[in-house]
Amino acid sequence: MQPLGGMRRDPAPSRWAYRWNRLWLTPLFRKLLRVGVPVFMLVAMVALYLASAERREALVLQYEALRQAIQDRPEFMLTELALEGASDDVARQIREVLGLSFPVSSFAVDLEVMRRAIEGLDPVARAELRMRPNGTLDVRVTERVPVILWRSRERIALLDRDGIRTGVISTRGARPDLPLIAGDGADAHAAEALLLFAAAAPIADRVRGLVRMGERRWDLVLDRNQRIMLPEEDPVAALERVIVLNQTRDLLARDVLVVDLRSATRPTLRMGEDAMTEYRRVRGLTNGG
Amino acid sequence: MTDLYQSQRAMRNMRRAAMQRGVIAVLDVGTSKIACLILRFDGPEQIRESDGVGSMAGQSSFRVIGAATTRSRGVRFGEIDTMQETERAIRTAVQAAQKMAQVRVDHVIATFAGARPRSYGLAGGIDLAGGPVSEQDVASVLAACDVPDFGPDREVLHAQPVNFALDNRSGLGDPRGQIGNRLACDMHLLTVEASAVQNILHCIKRCDLELAGLASSAYVSGVSSLVEDEQELGAACIDLGGGATGLSIFMKKHMIYADSVRLGGDHVTSDIAKGLQVPGTTAERIKTFYGGVVATGMDDREMIEIGADSGDWEKDRRTVSRAELIGIMRPRVEEILEEVRARLDAAGFEHLPSQQIVLTGGGSQIPGLDGLAARILGQQVRLGRPLRVQGLPQAATGAPFASVVGLCLFAAHPQDEWWDFDIPAERLPARSLKRAFKWFRDNW
């Protein structure tokens, strides 16, 4: 009942104001409103903005452009390639393999991939790549040194001491200084072949080359069609025996076609036609006499 | 009776829940003011159960973290008269206290002064089977008390066991564990009008609060303003409130009688308003500034400007001497005290070993009241102020706040009441179910 007289302001909170006040004092509600609502608004705003595909695309493009702008700054640009330790031919191959068109951003090149590509080249043993601060891509190459020729069925290849191909030549005459090996699978045993050539140094002027027989053992081929058949096991020792025999008894100067050392317990000689008839004659003389 | 028992038990459970949460509000719905305090229970005292009564009689277990007082509206004689107005006043007080405490409270313990309390002394006894007295026996003896017919529209507010007797030994505080053949108990039962309780329940429910307890204002002001030896030896606490004057008699630390006189400070104010022809607010101001009950020669010369805003110069410039004011106030105060005297006589207060009378409540602040009360009530009269509790604002430490401070103590350490004990097993209607359970347990 409102008594007569002016309306005085009621100091009491209304029912809803009171409830709102109590709700506001509830810890969970307070936390929800103070943390949950701003977080939700932020997420909703971002989600709304990103809802359209073209805005997303524009954002990505903007990002890419910015990224490109930073990458293309002159501080990060590579301007030249400095090759070290590569011959002209190899250098040309390396440039071809890298396929870089300078200037290029240093972010765009992957040194590890490039190193693998360069090391994939035949004549290169090892490569070190380094970006210098002045914008030089420094490539230091260790080339393989060809030490032996390998005549395979198709061509003559240059091999280094590990038997890895470093190049191809068309004729034997192009590299007369290198020893020659032949036969299937010979390249895998190039190191052994080099040892054999070293052991055959006393008769080096007569050596034509080594032939891998049955991918198993070596034949040393000399001029005058002479052949030294070496065993599978320990061919160097066998060859040294022949060398010693040659030095003491002048074995290889005689009319011997084949020195067969394949079995260490039973070394065999095959003589030439003339030597054979001569031998028979001498034997006949002594027998008949 | 079981209905009430259940509702009181529910309130006790609510109180326990509030204690676990640690925050509870106490609310004094008075005729002139509504006071709300918010208590926080988290002190170290709460954990130390083994100490029995803690330091400062256990009051350090709680702390007042919010306090608010507002002018009461819609309450007459300590009973709710206009529900909406009271509800608004309660909301104001609770919201202000919550704002101060910065916590939300859901549980409230309330007190009120009016609703015509009536005391009954109950007695009951049972024969024990032998062996020590168990809690179940205490519950049985409490249930064995013969309840008087207090009428259909009344509710039990307090039912406190006051005294236990085992065989020929009486005056036991706690009979548990003692051995005897017959256990008897005296119980003090306080009933109030059911409608007042329902009104207050409704108001508090409308404020989205849960009621965790109800107490009589006379009882809780006695708890807060009587000192320990007064409670022990026998004393009466007279709470001179705005619309009702409560009185409670304590003996051996138990309330043994409570009553209320439906007269209070508001009647004094209305007398002044009528006598001096001033509005109620002016009368209240004059009463609090210049009021008194003993006139001296000096008071004849002290002129009080009454003032008014009628526009008539003669009326607006009226003055009245303080002696005249005292002449208006004194008969009404005497009437209140005479009425209290009559109630005390009816209760047999003169048979108590000590007859200390403690005046508290807002009305006790009238200057010279102790002299007047001594002439009417007896020589042993003092003015009481409530106990100091932790965190209570200075403004709320005076005599007007005796009942709300007492309610804090009541919230922290309620006395055992009848409903704190389980109802005896043979009275449970669920007995057959229990037997079925027992049968299952025994046979399976």
Give the tags.
heterodimer; A: 289 residues; alpha/beta; Ubiquitin-like (UB roll); 9-stranded mixed beta sheet; 3-stranded mixed beta sheet; 14 strands; 39% helix; B: 444 residues; alpha+beta; Dna Ligase, domain 1; Nucleotidyltransferase, domain 5; 5-stranded mixed beta sheet; 14 helices; 38% helix; globular
How much of the sequence lies in strands of chain A comes to 15-25%
Q: Which structural class matches the secondary elements of chain A?
A: alpha/beta
Q: Report the portion of residues of chain B in β strands.
A: 25-35%
Distance between termini of chain A?
A: 170 Å
What coarse outline of chain B follows from CA principal-axis ratios? globular
Largest interface: A-B, 11 and 15 residues
Mean pLDDT of chain A: 83
Oligomer: heterodimer
Note poorly predicted spans of chain B: none
> Mean pLDDT of chain B, nearest integer?
85
User: Which strand order do you get reading across the main beta sheet of chain A?
Assistant: 8-7-6-9-10-11-12-13-14
Overall structural class of chain B, as computed from helix and strand content, comes to alpha+beta
Got a strand count of chain A? Answer: 14
Number of strands of chain B: 18
* Coarse morphology of chain A: elongated
Largest sheet of chain A: 9 strands, mixed
